[in-house]
Amino acid sequence: MLSRAALLSAAQRTSVVALARGSSTGTVADRPVRLEHPGKVRMGFIPDEWFRFFYPKTGVTGPYVFLAGLSTYMFSKEIYVMEHEYYTGLSILIAVVFAAKKFGPGMGKALDKDVDAYEQEWNQGRLDELKDHAVAIEAEKKEQWRAEGQLVLMDAKKENVALQLEAAYRQRAMTVFQEVKKRLDYQVERQNIDRRMTQKHMVNWIVNNVLKSITPDQEAQTLNKCIADLGSLAARK
Question: Membrane spanning segments where (predicted)?
Answer without folding.
Answer: none
